[in-house]
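Bit of a strange request maybe. I'm writing a small parser for structure token strings and I need a real example to test against, not something I typed by hand. Could someone generate the tokens for this chain?
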Amino acid sequence: MRGSRFKWHWYFLAALFLLLSFDEFATVHEKISAVLTSKFHNTGLLYFAWAAPAGVISLLGLTAFIPLIRSFAPRLAILMVLSAVLFLGGAVGFEMVGGSIAEAEGTESFRYRMLTNIEEGLEMAGVLTFAYVLLSYMEGVAATSAPDYASMRRESSLLTRGR
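Reply from user aminoacidic:
Good idea to test on real output. This should exercise your parser:
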């Protein structure tokens, strides 16, 4: 990564995942939603007020990562986009659908709980797919940039023989 033209992309992704992890246990997005709900009357897909702005911000942010994604091998680039679709589809898409069901049936209903499980499953599938992409990328980088110790030993022995 040193000297990489995508260094700041990687730093941003690291910070983003740190914030997402913090949000998962601190439920910041629910608190934001409560503040927005107190100011606006949200219904249907916008029942959870944080989801729509988060979706728009996510799509805009994703466009900033197009150069990074295109720098990957085609298979890994497709998997990286798939990881974003899975994660955002769960976190934002299913959250919005769940909001309309929560409004109509409450958060204790069977349908809402099923959607919540699907939502969490999609988020986990997105993170796991992303981790697979990163590990595959690192494996490829290590394979192409690892020192060739055998040739280094040969060169070293040739240099010491010439003395």
